[in-house]
Design brief:
alpha+beta; 434 Repressor (Amino-terminal Domain); Jelly Rolls; 2 domains; 6 helices; elongated
Length: 178
């Protein structure tokens, strides 16, 4: 939200805008910092005080609401583009991953488990899925789905690979926030 930047552009203090919008300065401060959700009544009052439409007030000041930037993790050989925001449909997360960490040398310590299921399809390259004692090659155009209570890891095979993954909450926490 652009409330703070619009307020400062007018040279107004927090107290000035709060008075004009009919809300307390402490409420406005929490709204500006994201520590409080804004009600429609408050949003309307603030937009009126600033002389801006609701659209202008909530539009992103840059292109971050449109462009998805990669998150690179060099130590894990992984680049991730998070395609869903704020929990996707039914709590699922969709992400594109570029895997450069190559197969081979995977130890039991590299294999993770968590409740749920993982699903992925290979967009380019080939990945090696370590699934318990099994080693499974999954090539471009193929998909895999498996119980994540089985120890598992995914590595690229002879060069980078790109996959599209769908993860439940446990999979997201395990694979994207480690």
């Amino acid at each position: 939200m652009r409330i703070r930047s619009l307020r400062k552009a007018r040279g107004w203090s927090l107290d000035n805008l709060a008075e004009r919008a009919g809300i307390s300065p402490s409420q406005l401060s929490r709204i500006e910092t994201g520590h409080r959700r804004i009600s429609l009544d408050q949003l309307t009052a603030i937009s009126g005080a600033l002389g801006k439409s609701l659209d202008e007030l909530v539009e992103s000041p840059d292109d971050s609401d449109v462009v998805i930037r990669p998150d690179r993790d060099e130590t894990r050989g992984l680049t991730t583009w998070l395609l869903t925001r704020d929990n996707g449909p039914q709590g699922l997360t969709v992400a594109k991953m570029r895997i450069t960490d190559q197969a081979g040398g995977v130890t039991p310590d590299d294999l993770g488990v968590h409740p749920g299921r993982d699903w992925f399809t290979v967009l380019s390259g080939t990945v090696v899925l370590y699934l318990g004692e099994r080693v499974i090659r999954v090539e471009t155009g193929q998909a895999a789905s498996f119980s994540t209570m089985t120890p598992h890891a995914i590595r690229s095979d002879r060069g980078p690979a790109e996959v599209l993954v769908i993860l439940d909450h446990n999979g997201e926490r395990s694979h994207l926030h480690t």
